[in-house]
Amino acid sequence: MPGLSNSEAAQDGWGRFTADFAYSMFESAKAEQIIVIFSEAEYSASTFAYIVDDSGPRVPRVSDQLQRSKTNRFLPVELAVPYHLNLLIATVKGTEPPPLPDFDPRADEDDYIQANGLDYGDPDGFVFKATAAAAIGLTAWVLLRRNRYAWRNNLTRGPELVRNRRLPQALEAALRELPDPAAPDEEMWALHDRGRRVQTAITEIVATHPDWATDIDFSHRHAILALTETDRWLQKHLQRTPSAKGTKTRDEEPRFCFFFPTHTGAISGFAWRQGTAVLTINVCVDCRADLNAGHESECLMVPKAPGAKRVKAVPYYQRDDAYAVSGFGSFADLEDAIVTKMGSGRE
Ligand SMILES: [Zn+2]
User: Fold this and answer.
1) What residues flank ion ligand 1 with Cβ within 5 A?
2) pTM of this structure
3) b/e map of 97-127 (b: 16 or more CB within 10 Å)?
4) 286 CA distance to ligand 1 middle (Å)
5) For residue 258, how far is its CA from the centre of ligand 1 (angstroms)?
6) 56-58, strands of its sheet edge to edge
7) Residue 219 Cα to ligand 1 middle (Å)
8) What was the pLDDT predicted at 234?
9) Is the pLDDT of residue 345 over 60?
10) What is the helix, strand, coil percentage profile of the chain, to 5?
11) How many whole angstroms from 267 Cα to the centroid of ligand 1?
């Protein structure tokens, strides 16, 4: 960026201009967060480094426009730009800032070039190459992150459930009359009652969302799948005879991963921190590993306002509907939340 002046008034203007420019780059980038660096140099580098997200441009704490070395010397651009890039990455990742470069032109004019592996033999070239080298590491990191979180910008459109999981047939089977318990005790009649509520919940979804199988909102398909699986488990249990009841080979009641109800594998409870609250949710092994590694788990993404002209994708649990209230079984049985929320005609 040519022509940045070091006079105070000009610095002030450039500060405002670069911050605004960084923000408009953020707005057109469609990323959750971007990092931007502006730099110019004649003798020492004047640098503006920003992290931009929804809350606006931020300057990392130890970032100075005129960055100095350990020995308090102004840094040349080929050291300042990689330093600022690494500082931005460290800030975004929440790790320690990088150490200030060793740079003291009094020692030996060329030393820092060799010491920092910048000896390209072409003074203009090495500014560019040093910057590019730092940028390559950065780009790889940004791409990785963008890839990892790409799901967040789009509505969930998979996996296909209607055909692959034979949902219409499962739905029909689930709505058949429930068998009376083979072992008619209190526990079995409680399961029978639950079966009735599952049936009511399925009927409510179909009545409220007749296009559940084709809707761009995949949450209805996930709910139908979860309910029909619960129904199959209930039916099987109702048919257990008194002698079979005591055996150890009981099928586990189906549980569903909070983030994505179709995730498979062992599901277990997880204390999930959300701001100051801790919620206990059911998660699969993969989501547990993601959360423990500090990542966000891929989540069922649904339209923020169903029916609105502009479709904005949000995690299903950010809405205010029965699926969010239940967390697909993490907070309340799905059928109970649906019967309560949809049954009264509100959603
Ligand atoms: Zn999961």
Assistant:
1) 257, 259, 263, 284, 287
2) 0.61
3) beebbebeeeeeeeebbeebebeeeeeeebb
4) 6
5) 7
6) 34-41, 45-53, 56-58
7) 15
8) 93
9) no
10) 45, 15, 45
11) 8
Q: Take residue 13 and report the two structure tokens written for it.
A: 């203007």
Separation in Å, CA 154 to CA 218, 222, 302, 312, 315? 12, 17, 8, 8, 10
- Mean pLDDT, the chain, as a whole number? 82
What is the Å distance from ligand 1's center to 262 Cα?
Answer: 8
Least confident of 227-236, 240-249, 266-275, 293-302: 240-249
pLDDT digit string (tens) for 173-185? 999 999 898 888 8
Query: Separation of 297 CA from ligand 1 center, angstroms?
Result: 7
The alpha carbon of 268 and the centre of ligand 1 are apart by a number of angstroms equal to 10
Mean pLDDT of 328-337: 96
Identify the residue whose tokens are 């005609």: 345
**Inter-residue contact 104 to 113 (CB < 8 Å):** no
Considering only 12-21, 111-120, 158-167, 203-212, which range has the smallest mean pLDDT? 111-120
